[in-house]
Structure formats: structure tokens, C-alpha cells
Specification:
Blueprint lengths: L1 H36 L5 H12 L9 E2 H8 L3 H13 L3 E5 L7 E5 L1 H27 L1
Antiparallel strand pairs: 1-3, 2-3
Amino acid sequence: MAAGKVEAGTSADLVERWRGILSLHARTLCELDRELHQHGLGASDFEVLDVLAEGTAEDGTAAYRVQEIAGQVHLSQSALSRLIGRLEKDGLVERGMCSEDRRGVRVCITAKGRALHTEVRPLQRAVLRRMLESDAAV
């Protein structure tokens, strides 16, 4: 019987920790969206630009396959395709056909996208620092 109480307590602790993580995630996303809005971006928009600006694709190029981006920004492929379409319309990214797989699409950041990323990155990092460090102190 005592083992059941310990297990229930542990389970409740796990659920409480999980809900705390979800709450922190939601609050942080809201804060990011609020701060990035003045630059015409949302949190997911910035994440895609951040991946494109700071990384190198698996094959060593500066262009990513949509599937590679989806794995890093945790969006469904359809949601990511719509987001990339908006970023492309705004001149922040370019899409092109994949040379090794004609069905694939590659995405790269434009000069305009890189300039916006450079401008907004310190703001995004400051929000993350503020939200994550204040939560750790609690």
C-alpha cells in the first residue's frame, strides 16, 4: 500500500512538472510573439529564419530541405510550408527545387531575411533569457 502512495506522489509530481513546462512554454511563446510583432514576425517565423541563418544543411549547403527545417522547428510539414510561403512573399526566404530529388524543395534565407534576423536576434535572445532565467529562480 505504501508503494502505491509513493507512486501516486511521484506521478503527481511528474504531472505538476509537466504542466509547469507547458506553462513556461506558452508564456514564453506569447512573450516572443508580442516582442517580435513590431518586426512583422512571430515566434515560429523567427525560428525558421534562425535555423536558416545560423546553420548549415545536412549536405553542407546553405539551403535546407523543408523536412530538415521541420525537424528543428517542430511544426508539421503543412504548417511549415504555409509559414515558408509567407516568409517568401515578404522576401525573407527563397524556395527552389532540390537538385538531387526533383520532388523536394530547398529553402534559403535572403539578404533581407538575414538583415532582419540580425536585427531581431538580440531581442529574441533577451526574451528567452528573461523568461527562462526568471523561471529557474522560482
